[in-house]
Amino acid sequence: MARRTIKRRVQHPRHDDKVTVAAALLERNLPALSRSMTFGKMVQQNAAFRAALKDLRWLFPPLCQRKDQAAMSDTERSRYLCAFSMINSDGTLGQLVDTHAEMHMQHTNARLLPWHRIFLYLFEEALHNYHPDVCVPYWDWTKPEEQHFPDWLVNVLPTVHTPTRTINVVRAPGPAGGLASIASQTPNAMAQTNYGQFSGIINGIHGSVHIWVGGTMSDASVSPADPVFWLHHGNLDRLWWVWYNSAQGNHQNPPLTGADALMDPWTYTEPDTRNIASLGYTYI
Ligand SMILES: [Cu+2]
């Protein structure tokens, strides 16, 4: 498959150029992205284009605004599902599912949130190849009105071909009361003043929701094949951002050093995960 000439440029970034460095990291970490690229991204990654077009702000996508799934319009939902099925067809989703099935210590209390922040970011970037306006939605199961499986996803049961397997998504959601009782632990997590304690409780809620959804979601070797995986992790990522910026969180970072701070198999590190704006998104 023809690769774009931009590939060569971004492998040798000028270190004074944050946008190019970010683009190089992205290129190295999700090679499938070089298969297609939006015009806006091409311009962003090319210093000469950027300089020439600096007054054309509309060409540069603003921060991705990640929304509550319950607040999405029908159009936004169908564009998310369209982009999801496109990255399923092009093989990117399958690669992400296989990466999640590997052992990267991504479910320990300290690594759960930063590792999955990068995972969601790479997924969102892949969606942008098809719909630059689509962002990862979040499923806010802390709200009583969202304590059931999202209706618009009930009949979305894709078949995902990974490089090694074929996964047919299935589910068996538990009773609404079960989800409410899992979610009732959230205020306790948010009240913690220590990252490890916060993340430990969040990790428990995380796993319980996976099991509540059941089927594909209850098995970490296949769970990202279910489109709701990304909405569930979107909510965890959002809660982390809220806690981090709260008085209790007080901008504490996960206690990770050395190899533990490398978000393998990618080249991102824990400090790369600290600011969601520098990863190009925000929560609304
Ligand atoms: Cu996971």
- Major sheet: order of its strands? 1-4
**Overall radius of gyration:** 19 Å
What is the percent of helical residues? 40-55%
Number of E-state strands: 4
- Ligand set: copper (II) ion
- Beta percentage is under 5%
Which sheet architecture does the biggest sheet show?
A: 2 strands, parallel
H and E string: HHHHEHHHEEHHHHE
Shape verdict: globular
Number of helices: 11
Structural class from helices and strands?
Answer: mainly alpha
Provide the low-confidence segments as ranges: 1-16
| pLDDT averaged residue by residue | 89
The N- to C-terminal Cα distance equals 38 Å
Give your account of this protein's structure.
The chain has 284 residues and is mostly helical. It has 11 helices and 4 strands. Strand 2 and strand 3 form a beta hairpin. Helix 7 (112-128) crosses helix 11 (227-244), helix 8 runs antiparallel to helix 10 (195-213) and helix 10 (195-213) packs antiparallel against helix 11. The termini are far apart. The model is unreliable at 1-16 (pLDDT under 50). Copper (II) ion binds at residues 100, 106-107, 116, 220.
